[in-house]
Design goal:
- The complex is a heterotrimer, with 2 copies of chain A (about 450 residues) and 1 copy of chain B (about 150 residues).
- In chain A, about 55% of the residues lie in helices and about 5% in strands.
- Chain A contains 23 helices and 6 strands.
- Chain A has helices spanning about 5-10, 25-35, 35-40, 60-65, 65-70, 90-95, 95-100, 115-125, 135-150, 150-155, 165, 180-190, 200-205, 215-220, 220-230, 255-265, 285-295, 295-300, 305, 330-335, 340-380, 385-405, 415-444, and strands spanning about 240, 245, 270, 280, 310-315, 315-320.
- The relative contact order of chain A is 0.11.
- In chain B, about 15% of the residues are buried.
- The chains are: A mainly alpha (about 450), B mainly alpha (about 150).
- Chains in contact: A-B, A-C, B-C.
- The structure holds calcium ion (CA) (2 copies).
- Chain B: Belongs to the NapC/NirT/NrfH family.
- Chain B: InterPro entries: Cytochrome_c-type_ET (IPR051174), Multihaem_cyt_sf (IPR036280), NapC/NirT_cyt_c_N (IPR005126), NapC/NirT_cytc_sf (IPR038266), NrfH (IPR017571).
């Protein structure tokens, strides 16, 4: 390439070949206008491993069989894999045993496919006026309806994994949040009193007297949007009530303790542990919540800064739409901010991850020991009534371990907080063992 | 064998010729002559320097120092030598697009930079020996003040 | 001040009023040449508190009485205060109950006074030739002798707290390490295989084939020296053997685990815990070791960068010799590198410190519970023979808790590592309780 070409490129890149609208889900069409972004997007099919991450969908239960014990009685104990690129999100859900052995609701699709037209159609069918003015209402209504559908039925309404339209306004190409569960949750979070120094637009809305409702799409800064589009899906969730309404539990805040408080208050459990009878919470990919506790978020560094860094293509800089582990792309992802060489930066990440992993193993062992002791107590005839306290400790401990384990950066997103949480997990698990032991002794 | 060598030489000459041609073209097209001036616009002719240029306009030294004040030696001969050397590497890099990004300052250029800090701040720093160029003894200004030229990278 | 005056100041500063030599300990004399540094040095008498630090010598045992339990049977359980400025180091040692109730050796003075002339004299008396060429030998010999003396006797040989000559070469004013225990220890560390990516001169010496011995004063970089001068004293130590030779336990490395390995191997204990009979290790101010595990060390940020930052005085820039908490001086200590405002930086430190403190409280409670259970077991007649394993767990747990607690930055110097260590402390303490409980059950 030469200078002429690059000066040309610099001029051309806004030219639109085809029209895209709210109803254009197929990324191929968008790709005609933005071939560079589309090329990156397509590369999310690639497979490459890092030490603790990467895009090779190995079986986590074979990798560390303790987790079969920990998830006893739940679908995760049967099939749980390393996540991979966005291209696979819909098909990986289809082939998961977790979909096959349990009757799942349509809510699952919210984060595994491009759902907007499906939501809209369902909303219109349910009686919301079909005009543009009622767009958002159609979507929110359709979301409710599809959440409650059986998975197989809902599955027929969608056909693409996350697509351009899910993160971009088709007219302006600006980032936007489209996911109903996220729109609800971020509003709830804003109205709470949980401090969010890393989210300036919420702090500002609160300081200005909390007028009206916090609206992420009109109030958030561009830099915040570079994380919010990811926070649409990379979050802890549960299905609320009979309607299986997908909900992010941020009413009291986003920390591990606040979420637990919320679940305790509403009396939620994901399942009853088969060996211990404890009412267990399953944590799921709380990347957004964990990032929120870290120094990068606090310094205004967004998900996209690391996972979709700018890269130069000829004369222009574009966002790398090959969303992946930053460790596969250290120079663009980290070196713009950190002037150390690649191997040094990798070593820093691995040091953090190894520390997390070592505490995590400790927590796993403690919890498996607790499960063992509790099972023994039950088998030796201690009535469930007396086991309540130990079961509550099992719930607390496992919630914390899983919160860190289900988060996909092995502690990197918030190193000290991850270690703190694991320290608590260990404490609760061992205290549970002490309880169980005391009961067993008393029973004899 | 002899003819093999010959054709290789011819090939090599062609390469060098084309390369020089390309560089001259770059030099001309990217307003290379302005490289020899002191105007920061000379640097930003090359869009690759855009970030630093934008940063410099907002940074603390905007009013007091230009790119060359920090990046080019103040003595006459080294000044033009450095300009030529950097000019060559930058043109080569720009033409062949074979440099690593993000761009990082070269060690030799970092020493020049430190000397330039002292050109202006020498007296202020006089109580503190600074040893530019001495690996073991240097007190590296950039260790603490990396933002003075073009503001924070983040 | 006007320009002329500033220009005058700029010229004057290198002018030496008096000669200073190796034997000039009195900082007043040095202060005639370097009045600005001397002014800062004198200000270490100031008293000001921060949330977890500062220079108010409050009683730590009253502040958190659990520590009386934890230190049961040891002098620290009687008197243990918050540290304060360098000006007090000698007098604070003099007035400590720890000096009064226990017969301490002269080794204590190594880090609480300007000892070089005393060491030298003692060395010469012991037969080392008195010429300049044997200077270092005189010092090393005198160090051995004074370490073994009773404290009261040795105390008469010194009269100043740390002084200029302890950190500076009187001729060149360059930084230097003078403390014998440090010189020995850093050499030992260099010859180990413990990775020290934050100490480039050691890594270089190793890569170049470990020729001769690593000599900190000729090989270290200036930036390293800005930490080494502090590492002379702000380190974990013990008195080796009958000679009470002050020793820093770095033979296997500087991490909490490597130091423990070393102590286990040489069979060292500080005391036998009064309630549990466990052979306890006391950790003392491992700031240098903890800093070594942190991201600042790894990024080349030295102790002096934060605790003696540069400051402007008129037209001249100097190092602030008022060594103190950086939180009392955030603008100079942090803001050249971190462009966030003061209250934000303070909030970041406090978030880290609060996380550490919360885990620390958990670890304290776990260890006090263990102490309680172990005492019970002993009282209910379990023979010490059977308690060994639980006592070993007490030792491991308390070593880790104390390592973080005795470190004076409440986790800031290495946030994740501090949390990891506390997580382990909790695990060991609770495991100890389980042991004790099992034994008690078996005994009945
Ligand atoms: Ca993955
Ligand atoms: Ca203090």
């Amino acid at each position: 390439k030469n200078v002429t070409q690059r000066k040309e490129e610099a001029k051309q890149h806004v030219f639109r070949v085809v029209e895209v609208t709210e109803d254009t889900i197929d990324p191929v069409t968008w790709g005609k206008n933005y071939p560079r972004q589309y090329d990156g997007y397509r590369r999310t099919v690639d497979t490459e491993r890092t030490r603790h991450g990467g895009s090779d969908a190995f079986n986590k239960l074979d990798d560390d069989p303790l987790w079969r014990e920990i998830f006893k009685g739940y679908a995760f104990g049967v099939d749980y894999r390393e996540d991979r690129g966005h291209a696979y999100m819909l098909s990986d859900q289809d082939i998961s045993e977790r979909i096959k052995i349990v009757k799942q609701p349509g809510a699952c699709l919210h984060c595994h496919s491009s759902t907007l037209p499906a939501y809209r159609e369902a909303g219109i069918k349910a009686g919301i006026p079909a005009d543009e003015a009622h767009r958002q209402e159609q979507i929110m209504k359709g979301f409710e309806i599809i959440c409650a559908m059986p998975y197989d039925e809902a599955r027929k309404l969608v056909s693409y994994p996350v697509s351009c339209v899910d993160c971009h306004d088709p007219e302006t190409m600006q980032l936007r949040a489209t996911r109903p569960a996220f729109l609800n949750a971020i509003r709830t979070l804003a109205s709470s009193d949980y401090p969010v120094p890393h989210l300036p637009s919420i702090e500002r809305w609160r300081k200005d007297g909390r007028k009206g409702e916090y609206d992420v799409n009109t109030m958030a800064t561009r830099q915040e949007m570079r994380s919010f589009v990811c926070g649409q899906c990379h979050v802890e969730y549960y299905f609320k009530g009979e309607g299986k309404l997908l909900t992010y539990p941020w009413n009291k805040g986003m920390g591990v303790d606040q979420i637990e408080d919320y679940y305790d208050e509403v009396g939620f459990k994901d399942w009853t542990h088969k060996s211990t009878g404890a009412q267990i919470l399953k944590a799921q990919h709380p990347e957004f919540e964990t990032w929120s506790q870290g120094i990068h978020a606090r310094s205004g560094v967004a998900c996209a800064d690391c996972h979709m860094p700018y890269k130069r293509e000829g004369a222009i800089k574009i966002s790398d739409h090959h969303v992946r582990s930053p460790l596969l792309n250290i120079s663009n992802a980290c070196q713009t901010c950190h002037h150390f060489n690649e191997s040094e930066l990798k070593a820093r990440v691995e040091l953090i991850q190894n520390r997390t992993r070592s505490l995590m193993i400790r927590a796993e062992e403690a919890i498996v020991a607790l499960i063992h002791d509790l099972r023994h107590s039950r088998e030796s005839g201690v009535p469930d009534e007396q086991l309540k306290e130990a079961q509550a400790l099992h719930r607390k401990a496992q919630w914390r371990l899983d919160f860190v384990a289900a988060e996909n950066a092995m502690g990197f997103h918030a190193p000290q907080e991850a270690a703190r949480i694991l320290g608590e997990a260990i404490d609760y698990a061992r205290q549970g063992q002490l309880q169980a032991l005391k009961l067993k002794t008393a029973a004899h | 064998m002899l003819s093999g060598l010959n054709s290789f030489t011819v090939f090599l000459c062609c390469c060098i010729g084309i390369f020089i041609g390309l560089c001259s073209y770059t030099f001309y097209y990217a307003n290379g002559a302005s490289y020899l001036s002191n105007d920061p616009k000379a640097c930003v002719n090359c869009h690759i320097m855009r970030e630093q240029y934008d940063g410099w306009q907002k940074a603390s030294h905007h009013a007091v120092a230009t790119c060359n004040d920090c990046h080019i030696p103040h003595e006459l001969v080294p000044k033009y030598f450095t300009k030529l050397k950097n000019g060559f590497w930058h043109s080569k890099g720009f033409t062949l697009q074979d440099f690593d990004e993000p761009i990082r300052i070269q060690p030799e250029n970092r020493i020049i930079l430190q000397k330039n800090c002292l050109y202006c701040h020498g007296e202020f720093m006089s109580l503190i020996a600074t040893h530019p160029g001495n690996d073991r003894q240097i007190l590296d200004c950039i260790h603490c003040h990396s933002n003075v030229g073009h503001g924070p990278a983040r």
